[in-house]
Amino acid sequence: MGMIFHQPVLKQEVAAWFNLRDNGRIYCDCTLGGGGHMLALLKATKKARFIGLDWDPEAILHARENLKGYEDRVTLVEDNFINLGLNLDRLGVKTVDGVLFDLGVSYHQLKTPGRGFSYANDGPLTMQMSPRSSGLMERLNQVSRDDMIRILKVYGDVYNARKIGDIIWENRRRIQTTFELRGLIEQSVPSRFLNKNLHKVFQALRIWVNNELENLQTGITFSVERLGKGGRIVVIAYHSGEDRWVKNFFRAAEQTGILKRLHKKVIKPTADEVLQNPASRSAKMRVAEKCVTS
């Protein structure tokens, strides 16, 4: 377990905005990863309990190792956060005092070629957050040409989505590796725009394969229902579509008196953090507090 699974972003800010309290309080990290955020929250408390969800079994293994010594205060669950309510019911927990969502892909997932998330490493076209979900090759076999183009536009904001979508769709039954997919994009894009387009295409396909936007909408809606009065929800997004949805959801929930936004503008990493962890550059954090009793 020597390798860092994931370097948590905005760790100090999360701990500060969570408004941590101790006796009998229960907090939930819905995107556990390697447990970096949870470890910081555990160190900041003495008696609070924590529930961690992640649908990647490798994340659960790394987190368990990372959180050794805190087993009496931690419950780890291998599941998608859309099932938060079911898991809270199973654990006999009615409401929680805080929920955290740190969206996107982990360092470990990106750097493990066998997971198929990165255009920098050759690996199978899988891109599954969970081994129980369908992989990219399987999904490509079922997609229509129009949907392929729409996926690149909506999930990746890909500038030449039609041209790239066409070539991926025409070759969808022949490509089996990340480098074969990369080769198709290289044929479609001038070299000076290549890296930006590679990032956007791979991001769009990952979000689509794992139903990330749909899961986010379901998961956040359900998590707010299970927040106790005064409980906080903290969401860190890296994709403009995700952040836009969170912003609009928080605003609408504030208008109906369910949530109160605690910071109207996004919270971003400091220049020092970006220097130490360049992957944090695109992070945008939003925080809200539950106003009504569940």
Give the gist of this structure.
With 294 residues, this protein is an alpha/beta fold. The protein has helices spanning 11-17, 36-43, 57-66, 84-90, 107-111, 136-140, 145-156, 161-170, 178-188, 194-209, 212-225, 240-255, 271-276, and strands at 26-29, 49-54, 74-78, 96-102, 227-237, 259-261, 284-290.
Brief descriptors of the model:
15% strand, seven-stranded mixed beta sheet, 7 strands, single chain, Rossmann fold, 294 residues, DNA polymerase, domain 1
Question: Would you kindly provide a written description of the structure presented here, covering whatever features stand out?
Answer:
The protein is an alpha/beta fold. The chain folds into two domains: 11-107 and 212-290, Rossmann fold (3-Layer(aba) Sandwich), CATH 3.40.50; 134-209, DNA polymerase, domain 1 (Orthogonal Bundle). 43% of the residues lie in helices and 15% in strands. It contains 13 helices and seven strands. The chain has helices spanning 11-17, 36-43, 57-66, 84-90, 107-111, 136-140, 145-156, 161-170, 178-188, 194-209, 212-225, 240-255, 271-276, and strands at 26-29, 49-54, 74-78, 96-102, 227-237, 259-261, 284-290. It has a seven-stranded mixed beta sheet, with helices on both faces. Helix 3 (57-66) links the parallel strand 2 (49-54) and strand 3. The radius of gyration is 19 Å and the shape is globular. The model has no long low-confidence stretch (mean pLDDT 91).
